[in-house]
Amino acid sequence: MIEAHELTKRYGDTTAVHSLSFTIAPGTVTGFLGPNGAGKSTTMRMIMGLDRPTSGTVTVNGKPYRQHRAPLREVGAPLEASAVHPGRSARSPLRSMAATHNIKVSRVSEVIEMTGLAGVATKRVGGFSLGMGQRLGIAAALLGDPGTLILDEPVNGLDPEGVQWVRQLVRALATSADHQETVGGLGHLAHQVRGEEDGSSFGGHANASPLVPD
């Protein structure tokens, strides 16, 4: 569960997020929608503990992200494929993450299968298309088997088959009988997440209503 209360972030005289309050319950898929500059990525960074709110609070499963002892098991966010050395294989950064966070190595193979990367797991990331990079990022987000996923424009660069795959994946994770996920999807194009969201859509622009029902 993700809960925000009166969440505000200012950079000097610029207000990126203004008085944003919401609750995302387990088993739901929720879209953060709005144009570029609306505060979506800033909100994600505050959820992930990468930016400190100017005021207000945001918690994941009852605690600020940084207070969790094993945060990767609480919240999963995509790895930017561009952050991986182009000469490394798709499997390599996942194995490194697993070792760093004390995750069993067999989980690497599991997420590679889940994201359709089995056929290219040993290929160099530098040769990946944008869509394959997206799949690698989602594999990293799933690595800790977290209860909450934050996906930033998850279908960007995917072909229609890939878009359908993402929608089916997040729906399956959210509705799993034994492990319901909380899924937040960010995107500046509403149709990217409209197909699977079942909660409200939130906008965090300084001059907009902080809660915009779908």
Automatic annotation (TrEMBL):
<protein>
    <submittedName>
        <fullName>ABC transporter</fullName>
    </submittedName>
</protein>
<dbReference type="InterPro" id="IPR003439">
    <property type="entry name" value="ABC_transporter-like_ATP-bd"/>
</dbReference>
<feature type="region of interest" description="Disordered">
    <location>
        <begin position="195"/>
        <end position="214"/>
    </location>
</feature>
<dbReference type="GO" id="GO:0016887">
    <property type="term" value="F:ATP hydrolysis activity"/>
</dbReference>
<dbReference type="Pfam" id="PF00005">
    <property type="entry name" value="ABC_tran"/>
</dbReference>
<dbReference type="GO" id="GO:0005524">
    <property type="term" value="F:ATP binding"/>
</dbReference>
<keyword id="KW-0547">Nucleotide-binding</keyword>
<dbReference type="InterPro" id="IPR027417">
    <property type="entry name" value="P-loop_NTPase"/>
</dbReference>
<dbReference type="InterPro" id="IPR003593">
    <property type="entry name" value="AAA+_ATPase"/>
</dbReference>
<keyword id="KW-0067">ATP-binding</keyword>
<feature type="domain" description="ABC transporter">
    <location>
        <begin position="2"/>
        <end position="211"/>
    </location>
</feature>
<keyword id="KW-0813">Transport</keyword>
<comment type="similarity">
    <text>Belongs to the ABC transporter superfamily.</text>
</comment>
